[in-house]
Amino acid sequence: MGMKRALLLAVALAASVLSAAGATTVAEVKKKGVLVLGTDPTFAPFEFKDKTGQITGFDVDIARAVAKDLGVKLQIQAAGFGALMPQSVTSGRVDMAMSAITITAERAKVVAFSNPYYRSAQVFIVKGGNPQKFTWPADVKGAAIGVQANTTGQYVADDTLKSRGAALKVYDDFAAGLADVQAGRIVALVGDAPTVTDLQKRLPGQFQQAGKDLAAEDYGMVFAKNSDLAAAANKTLARMKASGEYQKLLDKWIVQK
Ligand code: ARG
């Protein structure tokens, strides 16, 4: 096959993949009557399965409000965080993703973010009582520290902990990292601050933060590039903040320090 033909084929293939993609516009979502949310439901209080197996949390309630304002139903699709960011969104398998997803310049090259909806931080999660007396930055050298794959926790650890001699262990599943903290297989797990306060509420005494925050960050809702759904989500967010609905959700889901 000639070069030119191979190129044309590749372009056609890419185009067919794009046209097979799900709704990326408000009009398309309204036409099909559902907004499909992709989420990795292992991250309380933002997204997790309740006792009945229902996916619930702060993010889910916000997505529900976006769907309601669009006059459509919310449909939830679970995915691992690595698949969710960004393939589920860029392939159109979902219309939007919410998963405590941090806004970064790198990610903004491939997906569209809403305005920030939650101020968060990366922190060190250690066993309750901090039996290994881990502090940051003093005790990073030689320490076994866990991170969740493809998260900003991993990025910040690659940037700032590797060079200080930490032995990083990468987990696909955040819960597996927490289990290894409990078992003492790793000293600390890098994770999002609100997950620690949530763990302290649900499993008193078992986990705590050690040392200062590693990095501050903001969460955003995620859409396909150039999708007008991002503007619609921003409108809902502004409406919820003005009406007090947003504050109610904070009170409902997120334990304030
Ligand atoms: N905020 C971090 C990030 O965006 C971690 C998010 C992990 N979320 C999850 N549902 N597992 O990379």
UniProtKB/TrEMBL annotation:
<dbReference type="InterPro" id="IPR018313">
    <property type="entry name" value="SBP_3_CS"/>
</dbReference>
<feature type="domain" description="Ionotropic glutamate receptor C-terminal">
    <location>
        <begin position="34"/>
        <end position="256"/>
    </location>
</feature>
<protein>
    <submittedName>
        <fullName>Arginine-binding periplasmic protein 1</fullName>
    </submittedName>
</protein>
<dbReference type="GO" id="GO:0016020">
    <property type="term" value="C:membrane"/>
</dbReference>
<dbReference type="GO" id="GO:0030313">
    <property type="term" value="C:cell envelope"/>
</dbReference>
<dbReference type="InterPro" id="IPR001320">
    <property type="entry name" value="Iontro_rcpt_C"/>
</dbReference>
<comment type="similarity">
    <text>Belongs to the bacterial solute-binding protein 3 family.</text>
</comment>
<keyword id="KW-0732">Signal</keyword>
<dbReference type="Pfam" id="PF00497">
    <property type="entry name" value="SBP_bac_3"/>
</dbReference>
<dbReference type="InterPro" id="IPR001638">
    <property type="entry name" value="Solute-binding_3/MltF_N"/>
</dbReference>
<feature type="signal peptide">
    <location>
        <begin position="1"/>
        <end position="20"/>
    </location>
</feature>
<feature type="domain" description="Solute-binding protein family 3/N-terminal">
    <location>
        <begin position="34"/>
        <end position="257"/>
    </location>
</feature>
<dbReference type="GO" id="GO:0015276">
    <property type="term" value="F:ligand-gated monoatomic ion channel activity"/>
</dbReference>
